[in-house]
Model the fold of this input.
Amino acid sequence: MSDLLQLLHDHPPLFIAAFTLFGLMVGSFLNVVIHRLPKMMEAEWATHHAEARGEEFPPAGQYNLIVPRSACPTCGHQITALENIPLLSYLALRGKCSACHAGISPRYPLVEALTGVLSGLVAWHFGFSGMALAALLFTFSLIALTFIDFDTFLLPDDITLPLLWAGLLFNLGGGFTNLQSAVIGAMAGYLTLWSIYWLFKLVTGREGMGFGDFKLLAAIGAWFGWQLLPAVILLSSLTGSVIGIGLMIVARHGRNVPIPFGPYLALGGILALFCGPQLARFYLP
Done:
């Protein structure tokens, strides 16, 4: 193992390739998280509601991130190991189930490719270091949150809260920022969107965002400090506004059609990861 680590340390291109390959494999697992975690949350909520009403909830079969095996939603064909190779299996199957030939969503290879590319960028940007491992954890979490929010308008506490605590823990030793900035960043991130939420609700009588958005911005603040929060909020808002206006024009979405804000916060977090100091120089001395 030590020889392998030394090899990766001495050969940056090999280290980048290894991180990219690892990212592709993790991307395959993230597809499972994106699909199953909301369903697991719904089952848990249903159980709690039934218990609160004093009702007996029929026990369901075991369902988590590991079991049962992934299967085609159309015919139930269980995915074999050869059919689960990131990107290659999708190309070999031509985007169709091997049993019933139903189409496979192109989002599966998209998540795998995105995770692989961002993992390679992390390796290139941070090099062989603990920073790279921490950045990988942050990146994987944001990818999962982005696509879950697109599907369900949810940002699960099972991801946002551990991400927040991981940022504070990593910055105990001055990782991306010092601990004081990280703690203030977590507080300011949550309270900023919380304040906007209540101001919008008082003015319009409607909810403009969810509590998961507060927690995600708090997590980003915990990772990079309060100094980058203005850039993250500005970039997220601009991106969300442009895409929202585009959907209204192209797809004829009405103003009352909700748009998840988590993916745009995640984009701001990724930019903070790679370009944090450069962004902060625009408005901080």
User: Anything to note?
Assistant: The first helix runs from residue 2 to 10. The mean pLDDT is 88. The chain is about 70% helix and 0% strand.
